[in-house]
Amino acid sequence: MKGAGKSSGSPVELVDVYPTVADLCGLDAPDDLSGKSLRPILEDPSASVQKAALTQVSRRKGRGANADGFKGYSIRTDRYRYTEWDGGKEGVELYDHENDAMEFNNLAEKDEASETVKEMKSLLQESMKRAGSS
């Protein structure tokens, strides 16, 4: 592998592991598989196999065994991470990793980020639909 020992900023998902292993072993992965082979990134860390990665996180609201829970869904591109907690009812987050890698400045409510929020929201909805999470 040409990219051995190098890191990549390309968004990837856990579902990409199986098709990657199959590809590296010379096996054909099933057509209906969700993930994509990461082989192109392993060979060239500047390559990309997908525009964004979807993540689901569970949170509890309150304390104790009877605390209500809700889910958050995030979409991560090479630059932004956008999250909706409980479909946006528990909050929305947008972080610009190019200018705020530690995620200190939530841009979701800023007027100047409204177009990016719209784009990332659409990308999140598309990704959730493909994953069967909508």
Low-confidence stretches: none
Domain module count: 2
Shape: globular
Strand order of the largest sheet: 1-2-3-4
Radius of gyration: 17 Å
Using the 3D structure, state the CATH architecture of the largest domain: 2-Layer Sandwich
Report the count of strand segments. 4
SSE string = HHEEEEH
| CATH topology heading of the largest domain | Arylsulfatase, C-terminal domain
Largest sheet: 4 strands, antiparallel
Number of helices: 3
Beta-strand portion reads 15-25%
Helical residues, percent: 10-25%
CATH class call of the largest domain = Alpha Beta
* Cα end-to-end separation: 37 Å
User: Would you tell me the structural class of the helices and strands?
Assistant: alpha+beta
Q: Strands, helices and their partners?
A:
Layout (H helix, E strand, L loop, with lengths): L16 H8 L14 H5 L9 E9 L6 E9 L3 E6 L6 E5 L17 H18 L3
Antiparallel strand pairs: 1-2, 2-3, 3-4
Structure characterization notes:
The protein has about 130 residues and is an alpha+beta fold. It folds into two domains: about 15-45, no CATH class; about 55-130, Arylsulfatase, C-terminal domain (2-Layer Sandwich). It is built from three helices and four strands, in the order ααββββα. The protein has helices spanning about 15-25, 40-45, 115-130; strands at about 55-60, 70-75, 80-85, 90-95. A four-stranded antiparallel sheet has the order 1-2-3-4. β2 (about 70-75) and β3 form a beta hairpin. The longest helix is centred in the C-terminal third of the chain and has 18 residues, at about 115-130. The mean pLDDT is about 90.
